[in-house]
Amino acid sequence: MTDWHSQDEVNKDGAAFNRLIHVLLGLYLWEWCTSLEFDWDFVSGKRVFRWPMIFYFLNRYCLLFALVGITIALNVTSQIDCQSLYAFNQTFGNASIGLASINLALRTIAVWNRRRSIWLPLLAMILGHWALLLRGIKLKAEWDPLQGCIITSTNSRFLAAIFIYSMILDLTVLCLMAYKLNSFPTGGESKLVSLIFKDGLVYFVIAFLSNLLATIFMLLALNPVMSIIADVPAAISSTIVACRVVRRLSNYDRSFDEIIVH
């Protein structure tokens, strides 16, 4: 039976985590580059910038900064403040998880015509989500002369609570969206309704499965590395799909952004 807490196993898991992060960084950079034209349209003025897009841009770039920070932590060869670097990485990584949920929630609020009985409970859930995300920066790291920055401890159960809460929030948003869209009359808007629901459903399935995988590893608490090995894939998958929802909807019907604002 594998001794997950042995130093050899932790080193082996750390090497696997290192390779995984580099693959995921490449994947996200590809996604970022292929969708950069959409971002540039706002910078160049081709698209009108409205406040809901703040969450879209924060989502994309918080995750990018987190991935760059993690890559630095895994490749640095001279002694640095590992604790501060990993705190930075976890802060921006957790923020990307929360922002992905916000991006979908805003579309649901718009579908409900900003009804107070809908957006107030969602706002309360989102604030609770962020309270957990910010409170969950519990990872400990230190410098090792032989291995560089290493993770020494994590609060696995608290991190698991964050991902479970994320799944509940996303499920709530999806159910509200599905219920409202199901009541729309068929007609000229049916394609838009179908697009909103299908994208929301795809987002939920991918985010739910990735968050579930991360939660399982956290609850198993095999060792500090294995406890967080699925965190980054969960954040990346949620961010990619959430941002694609925003772009697809905006490209299909630019007036939908106005519905969110007004």
Give a written overview of the molecule.
The protein has 262 residues and is mostly helical. The protein has one domain: Up-down Bundle (Rhopdopsin 7-helix transmembrane proteins). The protein is 77% helix and 4% strand. It has a two-stranded antiparallel sheet. A hairpin with a 3-residue loop joins β1 and β2. α4 packs across α10. It is globular and about 60 Å long. The termini are far apart. 36% of the residues are buried. The mean pLDDT is 84. This is Transmembrane protein. It comes from Roridomyces roridus. Keywords: Membrane, Transmembrane, Transmembrane helix.
Compact overview of the structure:
By secondary structure, the protein is mainly alpha-helical. It has helices at residues 7-34, 36-43, 53-75, 82-111, 116-135, 156-182, 190-220, 224-228, 231-252, 255-261, and strands at 140-144, 148-153.
Keywords:
Rhopdopsin 7-helix transmembrane proteins; two-stranded antiparallel ribbon; 10 helices; mainly alpha
| Proper CATH architecture | Up-down Bundle
According to DSSP, the number of beta strands is: 2
Counting DSSP H or I runs of 4 or more residues, the number of helices is 10
Following the backbone from N to C, one meets helices and strands in this order, namely HHHHHEEHHHHH
Largest sheet data? 2 strands, antiparallel
How many angstroms does the end-to-end distance come to?
Answer: 60 Å
Q: What is the share of helical residues?
A: over 70%
Could you tell me the strand content as a percent range? Answer: under 5%
What is the CATH homology-level superfamily?
A: Rhodopsin 7-helix transmembrane proteins
Looking at the structure, the CATH topology is: Rhopdopsin 7-helix transmembrane proteins
Side-by-side strand order of the widest sheet:
1-2
Average pLDDT level: 84
Number of domains: 1
Q: Specify the structural class.
A: mainly alpha
Keywords: Membrane, Transmembrane, Transmembrane helix
Organism: Roridomyces roridus
Protein name: Transmembrane protein
Transmembrane segments: 54-74, 86-106, 118-137, 157-179, 200-222, 228-246
